[in-house]
Amino acid sequence: MSLFYNAFHAPLGAHSSFTLGCKGKNGGLGLELGGPADDNIYIGMESSKGSHYEALPFYEGTEDEASRYDHSNRKKVQKGGISPFDSKKIKREFSLGTDSWKVDDLEFSIYSMAEGVPDPKKTPAATLKKILCPAVFAELTIDNRKGKKERRAFFGFSSTRGSDAMNVVHQKNGLRGIAKGTSHGIFCDDPKVVALKDFSAENILKVKDPENYQQHLGATGLFLCPVPAGQKKTFRFGVCFFRGGQVTTGMPCSYFYSRYYRSLEDVAKQAMSSFDWYKKRAAKADRYLEKKSLNADQKWMMAHSIRSYFGSTQFLEHKKEPVWVVNEGEYRMMNTFDLTVDQIFFEMELNPWTVKNELDLFTRRYKYTDRLHFPGEDNLHSGGLSFTHDMGVQNHFTEPGYSSYERSGLTGCFSYMTHEQLVNWVLCAAVYAKGTGDQKWLKTNLSIFRKCLSSMLHRDHPQKKNRNGIMALDSSRTDDGAEITTYDSLDTSLGQARNNVYIAVKGWAAYLAMEEVFSSFGLEKEAETSRQQARLASETIAGFLDGKGYIPAVMGEDCDSRIIPAIEGLVFPWVLGQKHALKENGPYGTLIGALKTHFKTILKKGTCLYPDGGWKLSSTADNSWLSKIYLCQFVARKVLGFKSPATGTTADKAHANWLKKEENLRYAWSDQMRSGVAMGSKYYPRGVTSILWLKE
Fold it and tell me: What is the pLDDT of residues 63-91, one digit of tens each?
């Protein structure tokens, strides 16, 4: 498997990343991007013989920028000036906080924090300033102890994106940098290091006259780092990002870090002055996974996915109030609710306040009320409260009550997810309240829980006597269409919401959650209604277990697909401590027994296993999502007790291998896979469902 996969190296809440690892011009310094920056990254040194320079393979030869001006001298950059190290000699050590490359006499390490963002309302400003510094950190070490003469090392980048020029920064305090405008750059405070700019890296390495250190028309900047003969030296750098002022539309927000930093140079000053502190935090992140009883593939996927999550995070403020946003990878939709419900296990582990923050914004700005219809009929029936799919896209908050994604009149991708987002609010709210013990917040939101219960009842059936505990009506917002699920790009087996076993089990879990919430406040009428609905849902779902040993993906409709996510919703009773509901001899034992039979029947090659042992979420759709696989692996092993190579090591090896396929290396951690090749949801944050593995 290749060592040359891109990985995020991201500050906390800055929606930025120094993405690196894939060969060629496939990484770089990205601010608010849905993919890699496509910069040339130059990390290398003078050869021991001094005849040429060698570099890690994160660049490609391009046309000399000078030829844009001198048309009589059009030429390609000569590869003789810099050549890539032999890939077979390169070693990589990848962990949660540190990513290191070693070859010959060179070592390059990138350090990034991977920890919770503390509650800004309970944390001193000095602490927040440090933790929220929008920078990652790098060390370039050159071992010239056997050398007979000085050798030069270099680190820098070229970028032609955007309207800003590459510039060289010199400050009185000794800080120097190479930066793209005011938004991102690399900085160093070593007095021996020189910053230069020219048309190409090769040109820079040939410059001897200090008068020519700055070719202002050039788009390449390098630090040149001298290493005397007989010495081993380490050079430190801050890879910094900054965007000040208003950064969003629709609901104007600024980055929270802009409370403490006024410029890119401010960020760089903090990064370099506290470098040791940040390096120690990265080492602490490495230790987070060290002693966990996970196999090597699990550790790698977890580290990879956590890095991707942080690269998608955006910690903002609106009218001096914090706003937490997780951008949806390549799509950059903001706080997509069907990601929030899966990322909640990670956020509850690291920073529970962000869950409350997201839920409150959904309740305050992104809720709506609808009416309902049976398939093919008019919207004659009462509906109720629900929530939007997302809060906006690409730094634009959509108008209240509407998402950037959902549209009317559709039955597939881009239709409404009304019922699923309703269920998601209930489950997220219950998990937050249970995990934090925040009774004050729970009491404040009791009226929302009541409205959610009423809304779920109406979506079952307008008449109480005809209810069976699962969704049967579509929202008026679909017009003459039909609701879908988060699995929007799959076939009917997971795409259709109505009568879907995946949605039905999550709905059952929501009723259980509401029963406990209402009981804790003495609301016995609501609690009993929730309990009755949970029983009905349990009996209905279990009743569809057929003689072939599985529950059809869409119950009662002509759909014979078999799906793994039928078991997905069982994670919520487990997290909420409702273990009695998950026992085969408990009150919902018939459902649990049916789901165990279902899972055992379908986890077979040719049905829901690929030939390599990877999991196929639907028997009829070649589109499998790693984040959901991680979650369902946990449910299968911990909740249902299926522990075997098929649910563990064999599957883990296959899933890790998917991410390391040549086609997938560029996009870091990706979610949607078609036969192991990323087809969508690239550069994605939802893989942190893997955090559940630590609870096994």
Answer: 566 555 555 555 554 444 899 999 999 99
Rounded CA-CA distance 591/597 in Å is 10
- What are residue 409's phi and psi, to 5 degrees? 75, 20
Low-confidence ranges of the chain (pLDDT < 50): 77-80
Q: What is the pLDDT of residue 558?
A: 85
Distance from C-alpha of 261 to C-alpha of 56, rounded to nearest angstrom? 33
Beta strands 40-46 and 53-55 are antiparallel
pLDDT at 286: 95
Residue 66's pLDDT is: 58
Token pair of 86 as six digits: 């032999």
From the list 160, 124, 110, 489, the residue with the least C-alpha distance to 311 is 110
The answer for 184, left when phi > 0, alpha when psi is -120 to 50, beta otherwise, is beta
Residues 404-445: pLDDT tens digits? Answer: 999 999 999 999 999 999 999 999 999 999 999 999 999 999
Asked if 450 contacts 385 with a C-beta cutoff of 8 angstroms, the reply is: no
State how far the Cα of 368 lies from the Cα of 385, in Å rounded to an integer.
6
Q: Helix, strand or coil for residue 594?
A: helix
Phi, psi (rounded to 5 degrees) for 216: -65, -15
Domain boundaries, the chain: 16-265, 292-695
Residues in the chain: 696
Whole-Å CA distances, 607 to 16, 341, 599, 616, 626: 40, 27, 11, 8, 17
DSSP assignment of 465-531 equals GG--SS---EEGGGTTS--B-S-TTS-HHHHB-TTBHHHHHHHHHHHHHHHHHHHHTT-HHHHHHHH
Is domain 292-695 annotated with CATH 3.40.190.10?
no
Nearest one of 134, 223, 235, 220 to 170, comparing CA atoms? 223
Euclidean distance between CA atoms 379 and 480, whole angstroms: 9
So what's the pLDDT on residue 79? Answer: 47
- Name every residue whose Cβ is closer than 8 Å to that of residue 531 and which is 6 or more positions away in sequence: 511, 515
The helix (H) or strand (E) run that includes residue 542 is helix 524-543
Given the DSSP bridges, would you call strands 53-55 and 82-84 parallel, antiparallel or unpaired?
Answer: parallel
- For 61-85, give the DSSP string: --B-GGGGT-GGG--BPPTTSEEEP
- What is the rounded CA–CA span in Å between residue 394 and residue 32? 8
> DSSP of 282-334, one letter per residue?
HHHHHHHHHTSS--HHHHHHHHHHHHHHHHTEEEEEETTEEEEEEB-GGG-BB
Partners of 624 in beta bridges: 673
Neighbours of 277 (CB within 10 A): 11
Query: Within a 10 A sphere around the Cβ of 88, how many other Cβ atoms?
Result: 6
Tokens 């992104």 -> residue: 366
